[in-house]
Specification:
This protein is α+β, with helices and mostly antiparallel strands and 291 residues long. The protein has one domain: Jelly Rolls (Sandwich). It is built from seven helices and eleven strands. β3 and β4 form a beta hairpin. The chain is globular, with a radius of gyration of 19 Å.
Protein backbone atom coordinates (compact mmCIF):
# COMPACT_ATOMS: atom_id res chain seq x y z
CA UNK A 1 0.00 0.00 0.00
CA UNK A 2 1.25 3.49 -0.79
CA UNK A 3 2.40 5.52 2.18
CA UNK A 4 -0.67 7.15 3.72
CA UNK A 5 1.19 8.64 6.71
CA UNK A 6 3.79 11.39 6.21
CA UNK A 7 6.09 12.14 9.17
CA UNK A 8 7.83 15.44 9.79
CA UNK A 9 10.17 16.42 12.64
CA UNK A 10 10.93 19.87 13.96
CA UNK A 11 9.30 23.23 13.47
CA UNK A 12 6.89 25.22 15.57
CA UNK A 13 3.13 25.67 15.53
CA UNK A 14 3.94 28.43 13.03
CA UNK A 15 4.97 27.38 9.52
CA UNK A 16 8.24 25.70 8.66
CA UNK A 17 9.33 26.51 5.07
CA UNK A 18 10.50 22.92 4.56
CA UNK A 19 6.86 21.80 4.70
CA UNK A 20 5.73 23.52 1.49
CA UNK A 21 4.39 20.21 0.13
CA UNK A 22 1.90 19.81 2.99
CA UNK A 23 -1.19 21.18 1.15
CA UNK A 24 -0.82 18.70 -1.71
CA UNK A 25 -0.21 15.81 0.66
CA UNK A 26 -3.10 16.69 2.98
CA UNK A 27 -5.57 17.05 0.12
CA UNK A 28 -4.38 13.78 -1.41
CA UNK A 29 -5.71 12.05 1.71
CA UNK A 30 -2.50 11.68 3.68
CA UNK A 31 -2.15 11.86 7.45
CA UNK A 32 0.49 14.43 8.44
CA UNK A 33 2.31 13.16 11.55
CA UNK A 34 4.21 16.02 13.22
CA UNK A 35 6.87 15.69 15.93
CA UNK A 36 8.35 18.42 18.08
CA UNK A 37 5.41 20.79 18.51
CA UNK A 38 5.42 21.78 22.17
CA UNK A 39 2.22 21.91 24.22
CA UNK A 40 2.88 22.04 27.95
CA UNK A 41 0.56 21.65 30.91
CA UNK A 42 0.68 23.59 34.15
CA UNK A 43 0.73 21.76 37.47
CA UNK A 44 -2.92 22.74 37.94
CA UNK A 45 -3.91 21.38 34.51
CA UNK A 46 -2.37 17.98 35.21
CA UNK A 47 -5.33 17.23 37.52
CA UNK A 48 -7.45 16.79 34.39
CA UNK A 49 -5.71 13.53 33.52
CA UNK A 50 -8.36 11.30 35.03
CA UNK A 51 -11.42 9.63 33.47
CA UNK A 52 -13.52 11.20 36.24
CA UNK A 53 -13.08 14.63 34.65
CA UNK A 54 -15.73 13.58 32.10
CA UNK A 55 -19.39 13.69 33.09
CA UNK A 56 -20.74 10.10 33.27
CA UNK A 57 -23.43 10.78 30.65
CA UNK A 58 -21.10 12.47 28.13
CA UNK A 59 -19.03 10.74 25.46
CA UNK A 60 -16.32 13.42 25.43
CA UNK A 61 -15.61 16.88 26.78
CA UNK A 62 -16.06 19.60 24.17
CA UNK A 63 -15.72 23.34 23.73
CA UNK A 64 -18.01 24.72 21.04
CA UNK A 65 -17.19 27.57 18.66
CA UNK A 66 -18.85 30.04 21.04
CA UNK A 67 -16.67 28.96 23.97
CA UNK A 68 -19.30 26.87 25.78
CA UNK A 69 -17.90 23.81 27.58
CA UNK A 70 -19.93 20.60 27.72
CA UNK A 71 -19.40 17.10 29.04
CA UNK A 72 -17.10 17.94 31.96
CA UNK A 73 -17.58 17.06 35.62
CA UNK A 74 -16.52 19.30 38.48
CA UNK A 75 -17.32 22.72 39.91
CA UNK A 76 -17.26 26.08 38.15
CA UNK A 77 -13.52 26.62 38.77
CA UNK A 78 -12.66 23.26 37.21
CA UNK A 79 -14.93 23.93 34.24
CA UNK A 80 -13.37 27.35 33.68
CA UNK A 81 -9.80 26.00 33.85
CA UNK A 82 -10.60 23.10 31.53
CA UNK A 83 -12.29 25.46 29.07
CA UNK A 84 -9.18 27.65 29.09
CA UNK A 85 -6.99 24.60 28.37
CA UNK A 86 -9.11 23.58 25.39
CA UNK A 87 -9.14 27.17 24.20
CA UNK A 88 -5.34 27.23 24.31
CA UNK A 89 -5.12 24.09 22.21
CA UNK A 90 -7.68 25.57 19.79
CA UNK A 91 -5.43 28.59 19.34
CA UNK A 92 -2.39 26.38 18.63
CA UNK A 93 -4.31 24.25 16.14
CA UNK A 94 -5.61 27.33 14.37
CA UNK A 95 -2.09 28.76 14.15
CA UNK A 96 -0.85 25.49 12.67
CA UNK A 97 -3.51 25.39 9.97
CA UNK A 98 -3.36 29.10 9.10
CA UNK A 99 0.43 29.05 8.79
CA UNK A 100 0.86 25.82 6.84
CA UNK A 101 -2.26 26.16 4.69
CA UNK A 102 -2.69 29.93 4.20
CA UNK A 103 -5.30 29.50 1.45
CA UNK A 104 -7.66 27.99 4.02
CA UNK A 105 -7.54 30.96 6.39
CA UNK A 106 -10.42 32.95 4.89
CA UNK A 107 -12.60 29.87 4.32
CA UNK A 108 -12.42 27.86 7.54
CA UNK A 109 -15.37 27.53 9.87
CA UNK A 110 -14.49 26.71 13.47
CA UNK A 111 -15.80 23.43 14.82
CA UNK A 112 -15.66 21.99 18.35
CA UNK A 113 -12.54 21.32 20.39
CA UNK A 114 -12.58 18.07 22.36
CA UNK A 115 -10.72 16.38 25.19
CA UNK A 116 -11.01 12.59 25.29
CA UNK A 117 -9.87 11.18 28.66
CA UNK A 118 -11.15 7.60 28.31
CA UNK A 119 -9.26 4.53 27.12
CA UNK A 120 -10.45 3.73 23.59
CA UNK A 121 -9.85 -0.01 23.71
CA UNK A 122 -12.35 -0.60 26.54
CA UNK A 123 -15.35 1.17 24.96
CA UNK A 124 -18.37 -0.94 24.00
CA UNK A 125 -20.34 0.47 21.08
CA UNK A 126 -22.63 -0.54 18.23
CA UNK A 127 -21.11 -1.43 14.86
CA UNK A 128 -21.98 1.96 13.33
CA UNK A 129 -20.60 3.86 16.32
CA UNK A 130 -17.49 1.73 16.81
CA UNK A 131 -14.56 3.88 15.73
CA UNK A 132 -12.19 0.94 16.23
CA UNK A 133 -13.39 -0.15 12.78
CA UNK A 134 -11.97 1.46 9.64
CA UNK A 135 -14.25 4.26 8.45
CA UNK A 136 -14.46 7.69 6.93
CA UNK A 137 -16.27 10.38 8.91
CA UNK A 138 -19.88 11.05 7.98
CA UNK A 139 -22.68 11.99 10.35
CA UNK A 140 -26.33 10.89 10.13
CA UNK A 141 -27.91 14.02 11.60
CA UNK A 142 -25.62 16.70 10.12
CA UNK A 143 -25.54 16.84 6.31
CA UNK A 144 -22.60 18.92 5.09
CA UNK A 145 -23.04 18.98 1.28
CA UNK A 146 -19.39 18.20 0.59
CA UNK A 147 -17.85 20.52 3.15
CA UNK A 148 -14.53 19.08 4.32
CA UNK A 149 -13.85 17.85 7.86
CA UNK A 150 -10.32 18.92 8.80
CA UNK A 151 -8.98 17.73 12.14
CA UNK A 152 -5.91 18.41 14.28
CA UNK A 153 -5.12 15.82 16.99
CA UNK A 154 -2.57 15.73 19.79
CA UNK A 155 -1.72 12.82 22.07
CA UNK A 156 -1.40 14.31 25.57
CA UNK A 157 -1.03 11.01 27.45
CA UNK A 158 1.17 11.70 30.53
CA UNK A 159 2.24 8.05 30.94
CA UNK A 160 4.08 7.52 27.65
CA UNK A 161 1.24 5.58 26.03
CA UNK A 162 0.75 6.00 22.25
CA UNK A 163 -2.61 6.51 20.59
CA UNK A 164 -2.83 3.76 17.99
CA UNK A 165 -4.67 4.17 14.69
CA UNK A 166 -5.12 1.93 11.73
CA UNK A 167 -4.96 3.88 8.47
CA UNK A 168 -6.49 2.30 5.38
CA UNK A 169 -6.48 2.63 1.63
CA UNK A 170 -7.19 5.84 -0.36
CA UNK A 171 -10.75 7.17 -0.54
CA UNK A 172 -11.26 6.53 -4.25
CA UNK A 173 -10.51 2.82 -3.86
CA UNK A 174 -13.05 2.60 -1.05
CA UNK A 175 -15.67 4.30 -3.19
CA UNK A 176 -14.94 2.00 -6.12
CA UNK A 177 -15.28 -1.00 -3.83
CA UNK A 178 -18.72 -0.16 -2.40
CA UNK A 179 -20.56 2.31 -4.65
CA UNK A 180 -22.26 -0.28 -6.86
CA UNK A 181 -24.04 -1.85 -3.88
CA UNK A 182 -25.33 1.35 -2.26
CA UNK A 183 -29.10 1.83 -2.31
CA UNK A 184 -30.31 4.76 -4.46
CA UNK A 185 -30.77 8.18 -2.93
CA UNK A 186 -34.38 9.24 -2.31
CA UNK A 187 -35.08 12.94 -2.01
CA UNK A 188 -38.54 12.06 -0.66
CA UNK A 189 -36.96 10.06 2.16
CA UNK A 190 -34.53 12.91 2.82
CA UNK A 191 -37.48 15.29 3.22
CA UNK A 192 -39.28 12.92 5.58
CA UNK A 193 -36.36 12.43 7.96
CA UNK A 194 -35.68 16.15 7.90
CA UNK A 195 -39.32 16.90 8.76
CA UNK A 196 -39.12 14.41 11.64
CA UNK A 197 -36.02 16.15 13.00
CA UNK A 198 -33.74 13.17 12.37
CA UNK A 199 -31.48 15.42 10.29
CA UNK A 200 -30.73 19.07 10.97
CA UNK A 201 -31.10 19.93 7.28
CA UNK A 202 -32.05 18.14 4.06
CA UNK A 203 -29.69 15.24 3.34
CA UNK A 204 -28.08 15.52 -0.11
CA UNK A 205 -27.14 12.61 -2.35
CA UNK A 206 -23.52 13.25 -1.41
CA UNK A 207 -24.35 12.87 2.29
CA UNK A 208 -26.34 9.73 1.54
CA UNK A 209 -23.39 8.14 -0.27
CA UNK A 210 -20.90 9.12 2.42
CA UNK A 211 -23.06 7.61 5.16
CA UNK A 212 -23.50 4.40 3.20
CA UNK A 213 -19.74 4.17 2.60
CA UNK A 214 -19.13 4.72 6.32
CA UNK A 215 -21.62 1.99 7.27
CA UNK A 216 -20.50 -0.46 4.58
CA UNK A 217 -16.89 -0.25 5.72
CA UNK A 218 -17.73 -0.78 9.37
CA UNK A 219 -20.06 -3.72 8.75
CA UNK A 220 -17.68 -5.58 6.41
CA UNK A 221 -15.59 -7.73 8.75
CA UNK A 222 -13.53 -9.22 5.91
CA UNK A 223 -12.65 -5.71 4.78
CA UNK A 224 -11.72 -4.70 8.33
CA UNK A 225 -9.33 -7.62 8.62
CA UNK A 226 -7.91 -7.98 5.12
CA UNK A 227 -7.97 -4.59 3.37
CA UNK A 228 -4.71 -2.64 2.86
CA UNK A 229 -3.89 -0.86 6.12
CA UNK A 230 -1.09 0.12 8.46
CA UNK A 231 -0.95 0.48 12.24
CA UNK A 232 0.33 3.86 13.42
CA UNK A 233 1.26 4.52 17.07
CA UNK A 234 1.08 8.29 17.59
CA UNK A 235 3.51 8.94 20.43
CA UNK A 236 2.77 11.26 23.37
CA UNK A 237 3.31 14.86 22.33
CA UNK A 238 2.82 14.10 18.64
CA UNK A 239 0.36 16.06 16.51
CA UNK A 240 -1.39 14.67 13.45
CA UNK A 241 -3.61 16.33 10.87
CA UNK A 242 -5.97 14.90 8.28
CA UNK A 243 -9.23 15.32 6.42
CA UNK A 244 -11.19 12.69 8.36
CA UNK A 245 -13.93 12.55 5.70
CA UNK A 246 -11.28 11.28 3.27
CA UNK A 247 -8.80 9.27 5.36
CA UNK A 248 -9.82 5.71 6.20
CA UNK A 249 -9.00 5.38 9.90
CA UNK A 250 -9.75 3.38 13.01
CA UNK A 251 -8.84 4.34 16.58
CA UNK A 252 -7.61 1.19 18.30
CA UNK A 253 -6.24 2.29 21.67
CA UNK A 254 -5.02 5.23 23.67
CA UNK A 255 -6.14 7.58 26.43
CA UNK A 256 -5.98 11.36 26.79
CA UNK A 257 -6.16 13.11 23.45
CA UNK A 258 -7.29 16.56 22.31
CA UNK A 259 -8.77 17.30 18.91
CA UNK A 260 -9.78 20.40 16.97
CA UNK A 261 -12.27 20.25 14.10
CA UNK A 262 -12.44 22.78 11.26
CA UNK A 263 -14.89 22.82 8.37
CA UNK A 264 -13.72 23.86 4.91
CA UNK A 265 -15.78 24.37 1.75
CA UNK A 266 -14.49 22.48 -1.26
CA UNK A 267 -13.98 25.79 -3.07
CA UNK A 268 -11.46 26.78 -0.38
CA UNK A 269 -9.10 23.89 -1.18
CA UNK A 270 -5.87 24.14 -3.15
CA UNK A 271 -7.10 21.28 -5.37
CA UNK A 272 -10.92 20.99 -5.19
CA UNK A 273 -10.84 18.00 -7.56
CA UNK A 274 -9.19 15.93 -4.82
CA UNK A 275 -12.20 16.24 -2.49
CA UNK A 276 -14.54 13.30 -1.79
CA UNK A 277 -17.34 15.29 -3.43
CA UNK A 278 -15.38 15.67 -6.66
CA UNK A 279 -14.29 12.03 -6.61
CA UNK A 280 -17.82 10.73 -6.05
CA UNK A 281 -19.24 13.02 -8.74
CA UNK A 282 -16.64 11.75 -11.18
CA UNK A 283 -17.36 8.11 -10.34
CA UNK A 284 -21.15 8.52 -10.51
CA UNK A 285 -21.18 10.91 -13.47
CA UNK A 286 -23.61 13.37 -11.88
CA UNK A 287 -23.89 16.28 -9.46
CA UNK A 288 -24.46 15.10 -5.92
CA UNK A 289 -25.30 18.41 -4.25
CA UNK A 290 -28.18 20.32 -5.82
CA UNK A 291 -30.38 23.15 -4.61
Amino acid sequence: MENQVIESTGGEWDANPAQAAFPELLEAGKVLYLHGLEFDFSAEEKRFFTPQIKHPKARNISLDSQGHLAGAAGDADIQEALGALLGRFRSCAQTLIHSRFPLYKNHLRMGPTSFRPLEVASRVQSVRADDRRLHIDAFPSRPNYGERILRVFINVNPHGVPRVWRVGEPFERIAQRYLANIDPYSRWHAKVINALGITKSLRSEYDHLMLRLHDAMKSDLAYQQNSPQVSVPFTPGAVWVCFSDQVSHAVMSGQYMMEQTFHLPVAGQYQPKSSPLAILERLTGRELVTT
